[in-house]
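Here's my example:
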Amino acid sequence: MTDYASQGKTRPCNVVDLNNSRDFRAVYTSLSQGSSAAGTLIFQGFNSDIITGGLKNGGYRQELRELELLDEITHLRYLGQLPAGATGETRSSVLKNFRMQKGVHYLPSNIHPAIAWSSGEPFTIDDKQKFTWKIISAGEKVKAQSSYTRGNFQPVIQLKATENTNPFGKRKAPNTSTNFTDLEPLCKKQKVISDVDMNPGTQQQLHKKSLVWSENSCSYDCVIMLLYHLFLNDREYFDYESAHNTSLIYGDLADAFRSSNIDLDRSRNILRDALSDLRPDKFQIGEYASVEEIIYHILQTDLPFIKMNPAKSEENFLTLDPDLEAWSTSQLSLNFEQLGPWSRGPAQG
């Protein structure tokens, strides 16, 4: 048994379902796990043409034919009856040389009729040399050649350092056409934000764009990076919102972002200390904090706001008490409250 699924799984009672077997190999794998025909039970019917309709796979038939000839060559060599010249360096060359000595219609005596070849069912062997043999010394290094086709490029014309074919400094379109059908696809490069892409106020030395984790600071780090990303990519909107923010903590944080020597770690620590002084019951140093709670306390505004209902039916829109500390699902579900219609008004400080 050569199939991996049937190795070491012999069963005295083998129950199989062959209805979905794709080919004869799948049928063989299923049936070969049983130790006897009496102990084999086949559920429902199956297509018997899979195992009685002959070898329809040409590649598998070719493999079996070559194996039959190799068995014959091994047998004749063991008996000392192998013709001279029926050898070679590769499998295909051995088979080709053997058939040149015995004839292309030579058949081993015990070959099965299903794989026998004749003039009507020819058996050809591909003996194309796809490689060359070379003995490499210990100190020699050979670089493997790439199998990719690079295309038919025109050679570059060598110019002198003082020679200039275009005095205006612009490149012209090439006059010769290039075959790009065999070129590999170009790698997609991610756009990197440069000083030109940024607003003038953000063109500063960004020597530190990340934070070092310290004392369960995950939520604080998240808020700092979100606000700093907004500061870098949309400075106009950041300044507009900052002008209407009523939180003293946020004002100190915005001033730190505008500093030329911004230290995000220090800004994070100042934010955490300020929140700890403001609400020691929610923001204890070294304890985990909620990102929602941090944003709620530092993003206070005097601008009108709209509380939007994302659900289609306002009756199904529920909110959770932000001060809730629930330890079970049942306790959590009891603290939801239903919101009314959309509301517009000043933010609550």
Notes: The mean pLDDT is 72. The chain is about 30% helix and 5% strand. Residues 306-346 form one domain. The beta strands are 14-17, 40-43, 304-307, 318-320, 336-338, 343-346.
